[in-house]
């Protein structure tokens, strides 16, 4: 059984592969292999665990290799970049430069952030960028974001997660 952000990742990978896309999954700052790595690899996706910051990496060359790839070659290799979790989007956007299309999936709700003075932790500039696409998975997310931020200028899309099949 796969749930939460992992379920969304699974569904996106299955869809992309069924459409003939090459899928590379980049996971920031978590260098432990997780249970879903094998599931995604078996489907045909490549998993890459990379640091968002060179200080987090024992092997600086590994960070530099990925930093150069993301910063200078991402646009040539991929037509779009999908970021799962609005909270992590600032880290990812800092690593990449001028991507073709940005899609950010907001997968959490305010109830999960009671420890953070009831504020969603994200870069407020992301919601002001009209070229970004923000995907919401439930009707409450837009209300919560608007209550905290006011007007949202990025393109908003609603998407209901698929039923669990795995």
Q: What profile does the largest beta sheet have?
A: 4 strands, parallel
SSE string, helices as H and strands as E: HEHEHEHEHEHE
Distance N terminus to C terminus? Answer: 5 Å
Oligomer: single chain
Low-confidence stretches: none
Q: How much is the radius of gyration in Å?
A: 16 Å
Tally of alpha and pi helices? 6
Question: Per the principal axes of the C-alpha atoms, what is the gross shape?
Answer: globular
State mean pLDDT (0 to 100 scale).
80
Give me the count of strands: 6
Percentage of residues in helical conformation: 25-40%
> What topology, given as strand order, has the largest sheet?
3-4-5-6
Note down, in words, how this protein is organized:
By secondary structure, the chain is of the alpha/beta class. Helix content is 39%, strand content 16%. The chain has helices at residues 5-18, 35-43, 60-77, 89-95, 124-128, 139-149, and strands spanning 24-28, 46-50, 81-84, 102-106, 133-136, 155-158. The strands form two sheets. It has a four-stranded parallel beta sheet with strand order 3-4-5-6. It has a two-stranded parallel ribbon with strand order 1-2. Strand 5, helix 6 (139-149) and strand 6 form a beta-alpha-beta unit.
Can you give me a brief rundown of this structure?
With 166 residues, the protein is of the alpha/beta class. The protein has helices at residues 5-18, 35-43, 60-77, 89-95, 124-128, 139-149; strands at residues 24-28, 46-50, 81-84, 102-106, 133-136, 155-158.
